[in-house]
Amino acid sequence: MIALGCDHGGYPLMKEVIAYLDEQKIEYQNFGTFSEEACDYPVFAKQVAHAVADGKCEKGILICGTGIGISIAANKVRGIRAALCGDCFSAKATREHNDANILAMGARVIGPGLAIEIVKTFLETPYSNAPRHANRVAQIED
Ligand code: RB5
Q1: What are the start-end ranges of the E strands in the chain?
Q2: Summary mean pLDDT of the chain
């Protein structure tokens, strides 16, 4: 189960992400927002971050205009490793090295084609669990 959240700036891209998840039959829980009416991204970052940190959802996807505010907010929740990605190399590396559990993207930064490739890469790449990475992730958790 993937937790989804966005603000008004992220809403247009979130619709594209949802279409992809539907097509792939990937289950998700959508915490909103559900329109382009102005709202506050920390509200949605908090709900998605808690759903992931509490184990109710395995991973999360957060989208705002830049991806910055919503990732900063999500990373305030213990256990969350939210990675802002604008390319597939970063999406792959952050899963392998950081065991990132939330993908953040900026709807005003990248187009839908790239965003979907990033989502696919993020969801399909396993954590490497190599001792050097596990040691560093443990230090983050400390
Ligand atoms: C909203 O205008 C915008 O500030 C927000 O989507 C995000 O980019 C913040 O980091």
Answers
A1: 2-6, 28-30, 59-64, 82-84, 102-106
A2: 98
User: Residue of the nearest CA to atom 7 in ligand 1?
Assistant: 65
- Closest residue (by CA) to atom 9 of ligand 1? 69
Q: Does 94 sit behind a cis peptide bond, omega within 30 degrees of 0 on the bond before it?
A: no
Note the pLDDT of residue 120. 98
Residue nearest to atom 4 of ligand 1 (CA): 65
Interval 76-105 mean pLDDT? 98
Distance 121 CA to ligand 1 centre (A): 24
Q: How far is the CA of 69 from the centre of ligand 1 (A)?
A: 6
Which positions are catalytic? Answer: 64, 97
| Average confidence (pLDDT) over 24-52 | 98
Cα–Cα distance for residue pair 2/26, rounded to 1 Å: 8
CA distance 76 to 86: 21
Q: What is the CATH number of the domain that holds 82?
A: 3.40.1400.10
Indicate the number of domains in the chain. Answer: 1
pTM passes above 0.90: yes
